[in-house]
Design a protein that fits this description.
Layout: E1 12-16, H1 20-28, E2 39-43, H2 49-54, E3 63-65, H3 74-92, E4 103-108, H4 112-120, H5 125-130, E5 131-136, H6 138-149, E6 151-154, E7 157-160
Parallel strand pairs: 1-2, 3-4, 4-5
Antiparallel strand pairs: 6-7
């Protein structure tokens, strides 16, 4: 996210149930020192209406719902959080100009069955007024990189994989 042009100069707010210092330590291991100052760690729950209100989501450029590493019910918690975010944006739509447009909300689904279900069904029209729902699945995204495009870009360096069957799928 730090390297994306659309977020250049923006603050990145990371919400987690873990201790903020533990999260900051893990982030420090994978991010450039200059970009570290743009990251704000907030301890809270993504399925808590009070914690979501404190994040001022209607002012965000985008929201990414990933989940915590130790959770067993990530998918259901992400759906509940998505519902709350839509509800908050609906309440604030008339008060804030930034909520007049749908906010992109990328939601990771851990289970392929949940991801597949959201590929064939749509969100309610009321939710769609406030959020631009973008479901994704780690395994699906990785498979597309490896099998379809034959590689990916990491830190402006192209990483390619030899085709498994001469031609990408």
């Amino acid at each position: 996210i730090c390297n994306e042009a659309q977020f250049k100069g923006s603050y990145i707010l990371v919400q987690s149930t873990e201790e903020a210092e533990n999260v900051r330590s893990r982030i420090r291991n994978v991010i450039d020192k200059g970009k570290e100052t743009r990251i704000i760690i907030y301890r809270g729950k993504r399925n808590s209406l009070e914690d979501l209100q404190a994040l001022c989501i209607p002012d965000a450029k985008a929201v990414f719902l990933i989940g915590e590493p130790h959770e067993t019910d990530k998918d259901s918690m992400n759906i509940e959080s998505l519902r709350m975010i839509s509800e908050l944006c609906g309440k604030w739509a008339s008060k804030r100009k930034t909520c007049a447009e749908a906010i992109p909300v990328a939601v990771q689904f851990e289970h392929q069955a949940t991801f597949a279900a959201f590929q064939v069904t749509d969100l309610s029209t009321e939710w769609r007024k406030h959020i631009d729902f973008q479901p994704f699945n780690f395994h699906e995204s990785w498979a597309k990189k490896v099998f379809v495009t034959g590689g990916y870009t990491k830190s402006h360096v192209d990483v390619t994989y030899p085709p498994l069957d001469r031609e990408p799928i």
